[in-house]
Design goal:
- By secondary structure, the chain is of the alpha+beta class.
- The chain has a domain of 249 residues: ATPase, nucleotide binding domain (Nucleotidyltransferase, domain 5), CATH 3.30.420.40.
- 37% of the residues lie in helices and 22% in strands.
- It contains 19 helices and 24 strands.
- The strands form seven sheets. It has a seven-stranded mixed β-sheet with strand order 18-19-17-16-22-23-24. Strands 3-2-1-6-15-14 form a six-stranded mixed β-sheet.
- Helix 14 crosses helix 15.
- The protein is globular, with a radius of gyration of 22 Å.
- The chain starts with a strand and ends with a helix.
C-alpha cells in the first residue's frame, strides 16, 4: 500500500505518493499566481488553484507513471497541508463565491484595532498570535461589512487544505492549525472563541467545525475517485498548516527540534512539548500554534526567501529571461557569478512585509556598501546573506531566553542551493543538514495519512520510515570573523534605518 501527501503553497501545489516504508514513488506539481487586483489587494483565483490541484493529484495517482515495483501498492489514504490565512468562500452547495484573499491583502486591516482594544496580553492568552492584518480575521470583516451580498451567501470559509478535504470527502471542517491563523481560535480551549468573535464583530456561522489534525473524514466521494483516478476506498485525512507538516516530514516532533523550510517564504519551525510560557513568547514577538502531532506546539520565525530571489531576477536578470532561460537556470548562473567568500555588501531583506519577530512593512529593502566595482554576483550573494542575517538576529534573541537552535535541518526548494546552505552554516555557526526529502510538506502529509489510517502504530514509527539527510554543511571558520562584523553592521542598519 502507499500514501499520498498534498502540499498547497502560495504559488504552486505538489502531490506525492510514498510507500509505507518512506520511499518516494512519484511527485508532481502545478503552478498558479497571486494576482494584484488593485493597490493593496492580493488574490488567488480559486478555480485556477482547484484545477491545478486536480491536475497534480491525477498525475500523481496515475500508476503508469510509477516504477513497476510500486504499481501493486494502491493509495490507502490522503492528507493535505496548505499555507495559512487565505480562505475559500463557499455557498451551501459547495460553489465558490469569489477569489481567495491572500495574506498580504490590506483590505479592512483597520479592523485589527477591535482586537487590539482587548489589550495585547489579554488577547494573547486566548489566541497567542501577534496581531496583524495578514491573518484571516480582517478578510472576514471585509466580506461581512464591505461585501454583504457575498457574505449572506457564504455557507463556510475553508482554508485551502480544508477546502480540498471537503471536495474529496464531502465533509467540511477546519483543523486546529488553520483555525489558529484566523485570530479567532482559543488555543487553550481548542475551539472558536466567543469573546474574540464578539470583540471582532464577526458572524461565527461561516466558520467550520474545528477538528484535530489527523482526523479521518471518511472515504473519498465516488465521483472524486473516478475524476482523479484514485481507488474507491481511499481515506481522506485532515492535515494542517504546511509549516507544521513540513516539520513532521523532516522529523521535527520533539521539544527542542526545529526545521527550516526555504520556499517562497523561509520559516524556521520550533517544536515545544507543551504550550510554552505565554509571557516569554509574547516578549519575543512570537506566536504559538498547535503542531500536527498531538500534544506538541510550534512557533515560527519567518521572512521572505524565494520571493527575494524572484524580485532579484526581475530587477537584475531580465536579459537572461530574454535569452529563454528559466528561473532555475538563471539562479545557477548567479551562483557561479557570486564570490566564493563574503564581501562587505549588506542587504536588508524587506522588499515585502517581513514576518516574525519583526513584522516590518514592505518597501524597506536596502543594499548597503555598494561600490563602483560591485557586480550582480556580489549583490546576489549579499541577498542570500541578508536573508540569513534576519534569522541569525532572531536566533540570538531566542538564545538569551534559553531557547537554542543547535543545528538547522533544511527543506524546501531553496535547500537545493549548496551556496545558500553553506552561507547559513558559516553565518549561523551551526551545522546545516539537507533533509532526505526536499519537499517535506508532502512527506509530512503522507505521515499524517498513515498514522490516521492505522498504517503506523506511532508517530515515532512513521518518522523513522521517512528520516534521513541528503548532505551536511559545516561552518567554515575562515568566514567567522567577517560575518560577525557584517552581522553587527546589519543590526545597526535595522535599528537606525527601520526601527527609529
Amino acid at each position: 500500500m502507499s500514501l499520498m501527501g498534498i502540499d498547497i503553497g502560495s504559488s504552486r501545489c505538489k502531490a506525492a505518493v510514498y510507500t509505507v516504508q518512506g520511499h518516494l514513488v512519484t511527485s508532481t506539481e502545478a503552478a498558479y499566481e497571486v494576482t494584484r487586483a488593485e493597490h493593496g489587494r492580493f488574490e488567488l483565483d480559486c478555480h485556477a488553484v482547484e484545477r491545478a490541484l486536480y491536475t497534480a493529484i491525477r498525475e500523481a495517482a496515475d500508476r503508469n507513471r510509477w516504477d513497476s515495483i510500486y504499481v501493486n501498492d494502491p493509495i490507502q489514504a490522503i492528507s493535505v497541508g496548505s499555507f495559512g490565512e487565505a480562505m475559500v468562500p463557499l455557498d451551501r452547495h459547495g460553489n465558490i463565491l469569489g477569489p481567495s484573499i491572500f495574506s498580504h491583502d490590506q483590505r479592512r486591516k483597520d479592523a485589527i484595532s477591535r482586537l487590539e482594544a482587548l489589550g495585547t496580553e489579554d488577547f494573547y492568552t486566548i489566541n497567542a498570535n501577534i496581531l496583524g492584518y495578514s491573518y484571516t480575521y480582517p478578510k472576514l470583516v471585509w466580506y461581512q461589512e464591505d461585501a454583504p451580498q457575498v457574505h449572506e451567501r457564504i455557507w463556510k470559509v475553508l482554508s485551502w487544505a480544508d477546502f480540498l478535504v471537503y471536495r474529496l470527502s464531502g465533509s467540511a471542517a477546519t483543523n486546529y492549525c488553520h483555525a489558529n491563523r484566523t485570530l479567532l481560535f482559543d488555543l487553550w480551549k481548542e475551539q472558536w472563541s466567543d469573546r474574540l468573535l464578539e470583540a471582532g464583530g464577526v458572524d461565527g456561522r461561516i466558520l467550520a467545525e474545528v477538528v484535530p489534525p489527523a482526523t479521518d473524514m471518511g472515504p473519498i466521494l465516488p465521483e472524486m475517485a473516478r475524476r482523479l483516478g484514485l481507488p474507491a476506498d481511499v481515506r481522506v485525512i485532515v492535515g494542517g498548516h504546511d509549516q507544521c507538516l513540513n516539520a513532521l516530514g523532516a522529523g521535527a516532533v520533539k521539544g527542542g527540534d526545529s526545521v527550516t523550510g526555504i520556499g517562497t517564504v523561509e520559516c524556521t519551525t520550533i517544536i515545544f512539548d507543551g504550550i510554552p510560557d505565554p509571557g516569554t513568547m509574547l516578549s519575543l514577538n512570537l506566536g504559538i500554534e498547535h503542531h500536527v502531532v498531538p500534544g506538541k506546539y510550534v512557533a515560527f520565525i519567518h521572512n521572505q526567501a524565494g520571493a527575494l530571489q524572484t524580485w532579484f531576477l526581475k530587477a537584475f536578470a531580465t536579459e537572461l529571461f530574454a535569452r529563454g532561460l528559466n528561473e532555475k537556470q538563471i539562479l545557477d548562473l548567479l551562483t557561479l557569478e557570486a564570490p566564493a567568500s563574503p564581501t562587505d555588501t549588506i542587504f536588508l531583506p524587506f522588499v515585502e512585509p517581513s514576518g516574525a519577530p519583526l513584522f516590518l512593512p514592505s518597501g524597506n529593502g536596502l543594499f548597503s556598501g555598494i561600490g563602483a566595482t560591485t557586480g550582480r554576483g556580489e549583490l546576489y550573494r549579499a541577498l542570500l546573506e541578508g536573508e540569513t542575517m534576519f534569522f541569525l538576529q532572531a536566533f540570538e534573541k531566542l538564545q538569551k531566553h534559553g531557547m537554542r537552535i543547535n543545528d538547522i535541518l533544511a527543506t524546501g526548494g531553496g535547500s537545493r542551493s549548496d551556496l545558500w546552505l553553506q552561507i547559513k552554516a558559516d553565518m549561523l555557526q551551526r551545522p546545516v543538514r539537507r533533509a532526505r526529502y526536499r519537499e517535506s510538506g508532502t512527506a509530512g502529509a503522507a505521515i499524517v495519512a498513515g498514522i490516521a489510517s492505522g498504517v503506523y502504530a506511532s508517530v515515532d514509527e512513521a518518522v523513522a520510515a521517512f528520516s534521513g539527510t541528503d548532505r551536511n554543511f559545516v561552518p567554515n571558520p575562515a568566514h567567522t570573523s567577517h560575518y560577525e562584523t557584517l552581522q553587527k553592521r546589519y543590526g545597526e542598519l535595522v535599528e537606525k534605518v527601520l526601527l527609529t
